[in-house]
């Protein structure tokens, strides 16, 4: 009789004998393939989860839990541990990736221990901590950084570099200017920088410069004395620059700050001095500024709508968040992650159809990650059956029709401009000076500067003559 096989992983099948071996283990064990589907589950694991082991094969992780771990395993390419509290006690779950010769995840093993086993693990862990305190401290810092940067998901090299760069700049007190399109995650990046900083336990204050009328923005930022103007609070009010003293102030949509307020903000940043409206008394503040914008500040400077000296005061460290269309290899990863999140939220068990990855990569995503989140949530909420929506049905929520790579109706000139912008951007990100970036591209620095302004790219500030 020919030996039966369970579903294959990669190019090699797993013998059915693994069922016998797995069921002999006291530990609860399950195996998942590289697509996150259950390959095998022993009796102990099925009993802990309250599911049928045979029926579980081929199902996603959400088949037995609303809090999936596999998205983090595939994202960070390392072991993930989690403790879950149940009515009958605690359960300790470990997901361990197994790699093939090329370094890609071949499958993921998952173990589950009950509270008695968990206590034994805890005792062993405490002994390990006592003997390897320094190593554990280093790993804890790495885990903390990974947790903080988790919202900036992506395997594309631009996102890997971004996360490493934010870890580098986070501890400083230097001002940061974050640029990027709407929905790409500028505020998320600001939150990461603040959480990584030495001021993370101090006040973190946010204000959207575009959401507050100009005549109120000044009083919000700088505060006012009692009776400074009609309608003012009789006791006066602290401005946000004072409230954030010792911590961080996030100025969202800084490009929309009224020109008449910019000199006052510049003085506050240069000298740490704040004057409330209606007062001649100087108040000293120590605030780290993180600003963000989705407009071209260089063009605003040319138009006389934004002060150049304020720009350089804000852009001590420029950070650019790439739009989703520039990292299309991340789109399906993000979509799958949000699918698992929303399936858990709405108690659905859905997968994407086979052809949806091509559809998602063909779309331009003008709303970036925020739009992708909305589309996936729509998919989960509006799917009438467990088979999900078809690609044709899903396209109805896109902002414009999918016509293949590039924006609809884009000309050859548009596509050449997009390619030129990408080359300039990569050179400016990877080289440490304007001159080096220009040399790499085979053009002079003045040409690079002109083209960078054309595309709204942040320029390096040269330190030498």
Automatic annotation (TrEMBL):
<dbReference type="GO" id="GO:0005524">
    <property type="term" value="F:ATP binding"/>
</dbReference>
<dbReference type="InterPro" id="IPR025944">
    <property type="entry name" value="Sigma_54_int_dom_CS"/>
</dbReference>
<keyword id="KW-0067">ATP-binding</keyword>
<dbReference type="InterPro" id="IPR003593">
    <property type="entry name" value="AAA+_ATPase"/>
</dbReference>
<dbReference type="Pfam" id="PF18024">
    <property type="entry name" value="HTH_50"/>
</dbReference>
<dbReference type="Pfam" id="PF00158">
    <property type="entry name" value="Sigma54_activat"/>
</dbReference>
<keyword id="KW-0238">DNA-binding</keyword>
<dbReference type="InterPro" id="IPR035965">
    <property type="entry name" value="PAS-like_dom_sf"/>
</dbReference>
<dbReference type="InterPro" id="IPR025943">
    <property type="entry name" value="Sigma_54_int_dom_ATP-bd_2"/>
</dbReference>
<keyword id="KW-0547">Nucleotide-binding</keyword>
<keyword id="KW-0804">Transcription</keyword>
<dbReference type="InterPro" id="IPR009057">
    <property type="entry name" value="Homeodomain-like_sf"/>
</dbReference>
<dbReference type="InterPro" id="IPR027417">
    <property type="entry name" value="P-loop_NTPase"/>
</dbReference>
<dbReference type="GO" id="GO:0006355">
    <property type="term" value="P:regulation of DNA-templated transcription"/>
</dbReference>
<dbReference type="InterPro" id="IPR030828">
    <property type="entry name" value="HTH_TyrR"/>
</dbReference>
<keyword id="KW-0058">Aromatic hydrocarbons catabolism</keyword>
<dbReference type="InterPro" id="IPR002078">
    <property type="entry name" value="Sigma_54_int"/>
</dbReference>
<protein>
    <recommendedName>
        <fullName>HTH-type transcriptional regulatory protein TyrR</fullName>
    </recommendedName>
</protein>
<dbReference type="Pfam" id="PF25601">
    <property type="entry name" value="AAA_lid_14"/>
</dbReference>
<keyword id="KW-0805">Transcription regulation</keyword>
<feature type="domain" description="Sigma-54 factor interaction">
    <location>
        <begin position="152"/>
        <end position="381"/>
    </location>
</feature>
<dbReference type="InterPro" id="IPR058031">
    <property type="entry name" value="AAA_lid_NorR"/>
</dbReference>
<dbReference type="GO" id="GO:0003677">
    <property type="term" value="F:DNA binding"/>
</dbReference>
């Amino acid at each position: 009789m020919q030996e039966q096989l369970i579903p294959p992983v990669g190019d090699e099948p797993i013998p059915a004998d693994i069922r016998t071996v797995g069921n002999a283990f006291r530990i609860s064990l399950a195996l998942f393939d590289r697509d996150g589907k259950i390959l095998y589950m022993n009796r102990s694991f099925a009993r802990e989860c309250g599911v049928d082991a045979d029926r579980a094969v081929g199902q996603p992780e959400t088949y037995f839990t609303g809090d999936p771990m596999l998205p983090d395993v595939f994202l960070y390419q390392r072991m993930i541990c989690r403790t879950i509290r149940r009515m009958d006690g605690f359960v300790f779950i470990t997901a361990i990736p197994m790699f093939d010769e090329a370094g890609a995840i071949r499958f993921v093993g998952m173990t589950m221990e009950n509270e008695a086993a968990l206590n034994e693990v805890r005792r062993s862990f405490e002994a390990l901590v006592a003997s390897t305190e320094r190593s554990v401290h280093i790993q804890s810092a790495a885990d903390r950084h990974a947790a903080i940067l988790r919202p900036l998901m992506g395997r594309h090299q631009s996102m890997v570099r971004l996360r490493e760069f934010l870890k580098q700049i986070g501890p400083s007190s230097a001002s940061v200017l974050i640029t990027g399109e709407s929905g790409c995650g500028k505020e998320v990046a600001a939150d990461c920088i603040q959480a990584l900083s030495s001021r993370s336990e101090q006040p973190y204050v946010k204000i959207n410069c575009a959401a507050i009328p100009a005549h109120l923005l000044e009083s919000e930022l700088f505060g006012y004395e009692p009776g400074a103007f009609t309608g003012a609070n009789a006791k006066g009010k602290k401005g946000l620059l004072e409230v954030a003293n010792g911590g961080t102030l996030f100025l969202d949509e800084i490009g929309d700050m009224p020109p008449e307020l910019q000199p006052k903000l510049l003085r506050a940043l240069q000298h740490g001095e704040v004057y409330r409206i209606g007062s001649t008394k100087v108040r000293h503040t120590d605030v780290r500024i993180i600003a963000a914008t989705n407009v071209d500040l260089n063009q605003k400077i040319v138009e006389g709508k934004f002060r150049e000296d304020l720009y350089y005061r804000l852009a001590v460290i420029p950070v650019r968040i790439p739009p989703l269309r520039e990292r299309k290899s991340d789109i399906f990863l993000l979509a799958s992650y949000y699918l698992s999140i929303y399936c858990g939220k709405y108690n659905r068990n859905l997968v994407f159809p086979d052809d949806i990855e091509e559809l998602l990569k063909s779309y331009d995503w003008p709303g970036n990650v925020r739009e992708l989140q909305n589309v996936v949530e729509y998919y989960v909420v509006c799917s009438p059956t467990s088979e999900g929506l078809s690609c044709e049905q899903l396209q109805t929520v896109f902002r414009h029709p999918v016509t293949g790579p590039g924006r609809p109706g884009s000309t050859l000139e548009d596509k050449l401009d997009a390619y030129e912008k990408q080359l300039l951007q990569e050179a400016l990100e990877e080289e440490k000076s304007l001159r080096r970036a220009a040399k790499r591209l085979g053009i002079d620095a003045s040409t690079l500067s002109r083209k960078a302004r054309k595309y709204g790219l942040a320029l390096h500030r040269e330190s030498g003559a």
